[in-house]
Structure formats: structure tokens, C-alpha cells
Design goal:
39% helix; oxidoreductase; alpha+beta; globular; Quinol monooxygenase YgiN; monooxygenase activity; ABM_dom
């Protein structure tokens, strides 16, 4: 499994548009990508220009295929145009039961 955590700040006055675009993308990912086990966008309660993405892909192939999906490609330019600066992106390895036993190291 591959986890992705991303933090995005929108340009002033662009948060509503970004929310609309990413909510639609979220719906499309959930409907069409069975390898995307979790794909959730959240908006900060204390800062309406700050968005958090939590993504969990079943395989490296599912993760690699995600950006090339037609609905993702279709919204990318408009979505990134709303973003201020560079997003903070972290790839993560989810903990599993193997970590209880110390087998994953």
C-alpha cells in the first residue's frame, strides 16, 4: 500500500472554486478507482484556504495510474491554477499488523 498526505493552500478568493473541483475529483476517484482505498479531501475549519488530501492506494500501480485518469487530467490545470505556492506532499507507508510483531523493518 502507498499512502499520500498533501497540504494545499489556495490563492486568495479561489478556495470555493478549488473545493468544487476537488470534490468532483473525489467523487470520480471513488467511482472509478477501486485501487484508491481512501481518497478524501478536507478543508481546515480555522483556515478556509487550506486543504488536506488523504490518499491510500492498494498498489504502486494504482498510485501511478491515478494522475493519468481522464477526469484527473481534465481538472488538473484549473485545480493547480487555484493553488498558491507549492503543495506539501508526503509519501507514506501505512502501518499494518506486521508492525506489531516488528516484522516490517
Amino acid at each position: 500500500m502507498i499512502g499520500v498526505m498533501m497540504i494545499v493552500r489556495t490563492k486568495p478568493g479561489r478556495a470555493r472554486e478549488f473545493a468544487r473541483l476537488t470534490a468532483k475529483l473525489q467523487r470520480d476517484v471513488r467511482a472509478n478507482e477501486p485501487g484508491a482505498l481512501i481518497w478524501q479531501v478536507m478543508r481546515a475549519d480555522d483556515d478556509p484556504d487550506l486543504f488536506y488530501f488523504t490518499e491510500l492506494f492498494a498498489t504502486a500501480e494504482a498510485h501511478a495510474a491515478h494522475p493519468g485518469m481522464p477526469y484527473h487530467v481534465a481538472m488538473s490545470a484549473a485545480g493547480w491554477d487555484c493553488v498558491e505556492g507549492e503543495p506539501e506532499i508526503r509519501l507514506c507507508t501505512p502501518l499494518t499488523d506486521r508492525d506489531i510483531e516488528g516484522e516490517s523493518e
